[in-house]
Give the backbone structure.
Amino acid sequence: MRPAGTFDESYSQDMAIVRTRFQWIMLIAGLIFLFGVLPQISSYYVLTLANLIGITVIGALGLQILLGYCGQISMGHMAFMGVGAYVTGIMMSHLGLPWFAALICAAAASALLGLVFGLPALRIKGFYLALSTMAAHFIIIWAIWHGGDITGGVYGLSIPRPHIGEFVIKGEKSFFYLIMIFMVIMTFIAKNLVRMKLGRALIAIRDNDIAAEFMGINVFYYKLVAFTIASAFAGVSGALYALYLGNIAPEQFAFLDSLWYIGYLIIGGLGSITGVFFGVTFLLALRQVVMIAAPTISVVMPGLSEGILAATMQITFGSVIALFLIFEPRGLYHRWEVAKSTIRLWPFPY
Amino acid sequence: MALGIVVICKASGIFNLAVGEFVAFGCYLGWALLIQVGLSLPVMIIMLFVVITLLAFSVERFFMRPLIGQPVLSAIMITIALMEILAGVITLLWPGIGRMYPPILPAGTWSFWGVTIAQGRLIIFIVCMLVFGLFVVFFQRTRIGLVMRAASEDQQLAQSGGVKVTRITAVTWFIGITTCFIGGILLGMLQTVNPGIAGLGMKAYPAVIVGGLESVPGALLGGLLIGLSESLGAGYLDKFVQGGMAEVMPFVVLMLVLIIKPYGLFGYKRIERV
């Protein structure tokens, strides 16, 4: 919703993402804060968290396009991240390609794989699709486990540090810049993808695929495109993850994490790019809280100490998802919109 | 063997992804009541039924009822949330490695016509088939079974036909959890009580899907097919890919079936209308 009194007077105004002067100011201030202030003031710990959030946001954006806009459930998102990470690893450590080329290869490879595993979506939807993507996850991860020397099997791969010219990117702060630049670019791409014809077609398919087909939308084509885009995003995210960690192993791409990705979207709000940021930040911050709180709980209740971290994490995750589904199925994004319009209209109730 | 049991959870129309965890939970709970609390077998069964009733009704009231009329994704996710919570509770209460059930089943073997079968396994097989048959009869012949199938077909239609869908959902969950618990306890008797039991539940999905979600004989055939593909895959393909084919074969078969015949071998094809 826009504030009263702003009207579009030209086509370029109508098409703009950033509409008002206040939004421009906020955007520039936000970017300055992100790139200028945040890395200077925050501690190592916060930077690590921010990097993790950045990487996850890129992956979650892809899933948002697939799940939030196109309505296709994918429970194998983490596998495509794994593909991205491994392609980067293979390209860089076996073939010695520069990191940027490897990253693009990673995106392309997982897009291609996404296309293949998106094929069942042509004929099935809902629960069956969820299961077929689950199968995709297990097949891909199995292939990584058993890839022999190419993927390193159990031992995983170690990846050389990326560098731009002579400058080697290492340490939290320089990775922060790298990840955030990618995050901003990918967000821009995602935001625009869902605004154009493609995005509208996807929304039509989500809301009613038969009606969409009636309107002349090629449902199969667009579903495949959605899968491809989602996997490409996951590929970029996985590539960054691999570069960031410098070390990848198959167990980092667990089935449970795919579920976490769906969780980010549910908490953030399905069908909104902004919501992804809310969801990812909220859940990852919650994860940190649990990590800090779990040892305290085990002090209070000894005898539960073994595996308490994993257990509390699972319980928290499960209950948060359940609570959001029950009480706020539209996610944090909806709350954010409500809060914005309340402030805008204050002191009037509506 | 847990398979026939998963079928029932499916036939009742709930897209339940938490089956594996329910099986594991039943397994652990049975063990805890027997060993940690020290109850005798009949008392344990009664206690378990109390727990199941409580669980079923609370799941219905707190998890399923707010979601009536929500899209499929919410239903799937809520069962995933449930699964997570249960898995967490299991690790919280019974951490560490496997536990053993006391020997309840006889350990000897019988041989029929030259085939030797462990007595325990035979008994478990018979119990499974009995439970399975009971549920088939229940679904096909009784009024509640009919109402349940109606409710799983179309909630609104069933409701306007005078069915109390919320009550039926609770009963469905009750049956689903009961079957899961039975499966869990039997599995626990066969092997040790360990968290890996939940993983067995995961493997049951390909079987159910391959056979078709709605079809009971289809599920049996699907189980057979999946089992065959596992052992054949392991036998013939393992030498090319350094082993481990058995883990992935069910999912490969699942993918193929979903691409070629999306509703399973015996599932109903739904006709969609706008």
